Amino acid sequence: MKTIIIALLLGCFLFAGCNLIDKATVSCLPNYEKKYSTLRLPNHATAGNGIRYDGFYAHTSYYETSDKVDTIFALYFFYEDGSFIWICRNDISNEFKKNVSKNISTWRKGDRWNHNCGVYAANQDTINMEYYGHSYSSFYKLTIKKFLITDEKHIRHISQTYFDKGKPWTKAKDDDYYFVQADSIPPPYCFIKQEKWIWKDKHDWKNYMEKKKHRSEQEH
Fold first, then answer.
1. How much is the average pLDDT of 3-26?
2. Are 204 and 41 in contact (CB under 8 A)?
3. Considering only CA atoms, which of 188, 184, 172 is closest in space to residue 114?
4. Strands 83-89 and 69-78
5. What is the mean pLDDT of residues 10-23?
6. Contact, 85 vs 104, CB < 8 A?
7. What is the CA radius of gyration of the chain?
8. For the segment 59-100, what is each residue's pLDDT rounded down to a tens digit?
9. 36 to 5, 126, 145, 163: CA distances (angstroms)
10. At 103, is the pLDDT very low, low, confident or very high (cuts 50, 70, 90)?
């Protein structure tokens, strides 16, 4: 009985710790997934790879409901330090493109203007991405994605690898993304950068955390 109570208390502690909104962390990433995480920041080897940074890549999907058809845009923002951020929106009108940062700031919170981000590495025409995002539990999940750079304005999502209790399995994909030039791209602030292990050098991590603290003080 004592063992059961301790286990329950530990479970509650972990659940609460993984859901602190202002202290979101992928320290909750299961160890069996963490061993597949190999890309680290900063990843300047991505320079000159054909990826554009003066906008975002978008994929359009249509969902039919009982009375209408909804349009959803999946957007990838790539950054020169090797990080990326993914969001979904139902609008990428000219008004949105004129000032992306302002539009996103209306719903971002603190350092995490999105919960889904990661690290990428480009090699010739291939983009390998380690993506960290929400799961249906209190843990964050790792997904490995692969894209092809098809030309200067298009990339194609060709595969996605998931992890089921440590066993990877890959699903083929065939989703085309088109480049959209935009102004005022949001800075690459995302929760993954709060993790010391995602950085090649602990001094870079310390510098990032100091800048994050300074930004937080300015926001308040």
1. 40
2. yes
3. 188
4. antiparallel
5. 38
6. no
7. 19
8. 999 988 878 888 999 999 999 999 999 988 888 999 889 889
9. 33, 19, 12, 9
10. confident
The overall average pLDDT reported for the chain is 80
For residue 215, the one-letter residue type is R
Are 153 and 45 a contacting pair, CB within 8 Å?
A: no
Instruction: Verify cis geometry, omega within 30 degrees of 0, for the bond prior to 186.
Output: no
Local confidence band at 38 (pLDDT 50, 70, 90 cut-offs): very high
* Nearest in space to 127 (alpha carbons), one of 151, 85, 156, 162: 156
Which string of b and e fits 110-133 if b means at least 16 CB within 10 Å?
A: bbbbbbbbbbbbbeeeebebbbbb
Output the six-digit token pair for 43: 């990843």
d(CA 179, CA 75): 10
Could you tell me if residue 48 is left (phi over 0), alpha (psi between -120 and 50 degrees) or otherwise beta? left
Q: What is the pLDDT of residue 145?
A: 97
Q: What are 179's strand-pairing partners?
A: 57
> Do residues 126 and 147 touch, judged by C-beta distance below 8 A?
yes
pLDDT at 20: 38
For residue 211, what are the CA distances in angstroms to 49, 53, 101, 215?
A: 28, 22, 18, 6
- H or E stretch including 62? strand 55-64
- Maximum Cα–Cα distance across the chain: 63
